Structures are given as C-alpha cells and as structure tokens.
Amino acid sequence: MRLVIARCSVDYAGRLSAHLPLATRLLMLKADGSLLVHSDGGSYKPLNWMSPPCSIEMTEPDEEQATAGITQVWTVTQKKTQDKLIVSLYEVLADESHDLGVDPGLVKDGVEAHLQQLLAEQIELLGDGHTLVRREYMTAIGPVDILARDDAGASVAVEMKRNANIDAVEQLTRYLELMNRDPLLRPVQGVLAAQTVAPQARTLAEDRGIRVLVLDYDAMRGIEGGHTRLF
Q1: Where is the Endonuclease NucS C-terminal domain (predicted)?
Q2: Helix extents (H) in the chain
Q3: Residue 7 pairs with which residues in a beta bridge?
Q4: pTM exceeding the 0.85 threshold for the entire prediction
Q5: How many CB atoms lie within 10 A of CB 197?
Q6: What would you measure as the largest C-alpha separation in the chain, in angstroms?
Q7: 223-to-12, 137, 166, 216, 220 alpha-carbon distances in Å
Q8: What percent of the residues of the chain are helix, what percent strand, and what percent coil, each to the nearest 5?
Q9: Percent of the chain at pLDDT above 70?
Q10: Residue 135 to residues 142, 143, 158, 160: CA-CA distances in angstroms?
Q11: Rounded to an integer, what distance in angstroms lies between the CA atom of residue 92 and that of residue 72?
C-alpha cells in the first residue's frame, strides 16, 4: 500500500462529475489498483475513490498545468466503465509504501456469523421471490455480508449486525454508493438486518431508502416463539 499526503485537487469524470478543490489530502493506493482520497474528517469514508479493476498513469504536467503549480498528474481509469479519477498534485508532503501481506479477513462474532448463515439459508425472509447470489460479496472496500436478488432480478445488498447503530447504516451506505457504480449490479437496494436496531439508525436508514429487517435468532434456529419483522 502506498500512502501519499499531498496538496492536490481531484476531478471525477464519467457517468457523474465531481470536483474537489485544492487542499491537503491523503491518497491511498492499494495493491488491488484502487485509489481512495481522504480528508482529515468524515470518519472512514473517502471523499472520492476509484475501485478495481482500474489502471493508473502518472504523468508530468503540461505547460499550462505546470504554470498553475501542478507537479504531477495521476489519471486512474476504471477498466469496465472508462470513468476517470484525475488527481493533480501540487506538493507532496509525505510518500510511503508498505507491504501489508495477506489479510486473514474479518473474524465475525459467533452469533453474527451464524445469523448471516441462517439468513442465507432463509433468504425468503427478505421477501417473496428473493434468491441468494452469495455470502461475503467482495467489494473494493470490504465484503458485503449477503448479495441477493429480489423477485424482479434487482440486486439487494444486506449488512448483518447483532445490534445495528448509525455506524452500520454508514457502512452499508458506502457499499451501496460503490456497488451502484457497477453497471452489472445497479440499481442496488440496501437492507440492514439485525437483532436490534437503534432508533437513530432506523431513522437514518429509512431516510436513505434502506430497509430494516429485525431478526429473531431463536425463530431462525427453529425455536418456538420467535418472529422476524421487515420494516
């Protein structure tokens, strides 16, 4: 992984356009080819990013760019969509590379992992006609717990928690923003599935069009008296 702290501006060009004006930011280049642009705020969420498969070209500025103070231009191109993320570097303050090795992946809490397995086996709890695509669907920023399709064939991304709070909604929102860039997946609907959901998390999820599925662990295990609710 390469970590660069630089004064830079960023432009995203493709199906949508976005511009980040000149400021000091963290540029994170991962071994899978992805690039994430972070500020010193916003928690874990990048300001902009390009997910793999993509290629990156680092070039010298042209005369006009050099006159404006640009020292290097990074052009990251998404191979499937041809969208481009263009980073104009004015000053590099730090530049380090580290080999992180092979990541063992997230080890889930036992109950949470079992909930995921049970919901995959009882995917109809999401709604009539839903089918499982796969568990642990990998994205550039981590695995989505369950990817399914509804009765119309549209994609459904499910984030599983024992106790869902606002952070869970933010995490699922990030996955949805990324997955909805993929023409093979979009439109992707989000479902937050948990045993308990904080009131603030429910309000935020509903505001963002994310469904909330309250799971009854005992009912899913076949223990009498349990029930599951979809809101």
Answers
A1: 111-231
A2: 63-67, 110-121, 166-179, 199-207, 217-220
A3: 24, 91
A4: no
A5: 23
A6: 74
A7: 51, 29, 30, 10, 7
A8: 20, 45, 35
A9: 92
A10: 12, 9, 9, 11
A11: 10
